[in-house]
Amino acid sequence: MILVTNDDGIQADGLRILVEALEELDEVYVVAPDRERSAIGMAITLHRPLRARRVGERAFAVDGTPVDCVDLGVGGLLPEKPKLLVSGINRGQNLGHDILFSGTVAAAIKGTFRGIPSIAVSLVLGERERYIVEEVHFETAAEAALAVGRAVLENGLPEGVLLNVNVPNLPVREIKGFRITRQDRGPYDTKVVKRVDPRGNVYYWIGGERMEVDCAQDTDIYAVRNGYISITPIRPDLTDYSAMGELEGWTLRLGRER
Fold this sequence. Notes:
Layout: E1 2-5, H1 13-22, E2 28-33, E3 52-56, E4 59-62, H2 66-77, E5 84-91, H3 103-113, E6 118-124, H4 127-131, H5 138-155, E7 162-168, E8 177-180, E9 191-196, E10 202-207, H6 220-225, E11 228-234, H7 241-248
Parallel strand pairs: 1-2, 1-5, 2-4, 5-6, 6-7, 8-11
Antiparallel strand pairs: 3-4, 7-11, 9-10
């Protein structure tokens, strides 16, 4: 059994196409948010009850976050623990620092926490393509998800590791292949737009552009920009083990020195 979720919502085209592809591997259950919950990261719902509405024989819409969906699916909605979790297909990139905010990646992280081999799959689109209906190649990302999912089922994953897969928005015939990559280190800058509403109240839009400080040939961004599907292994353990030794040499005291 395979669990599929996303952060674009239960009605997303990418979700539907992903399910159709993965049914070649095994029976697929869907537990996904009832609306778009992008850029919500690892958020969970603690201050109100969650509701899950059955929308198909093996599909549930949840009024919560992607991480909530994994918890509800594994903890109560599914008949057994899935042998694979796939989150996506996200309509938009999850490259570099995007993984720190992504609901798509967060669902795969939660699956990893629960001991389920997990994959996050995203289709890399430009800003215009994300919001305007043009040629969006979900079928390419679905084939990539199928290939990676099959490989994970056959080979397994190292303990505590998930795969972040990003697919160029190209027809299958134009994809050059797969590359194992690292996360690009380029952060986003900070952009704040200040405006005033018709009642004279100030409000803000926040955002930013990716800063080009890395983009080395072994990164996820470089691979996708050059026509390759990037597969980045991610370990949610954020401990910097190399820094632990350095910090051990610090002299630390509690209280004010006299």
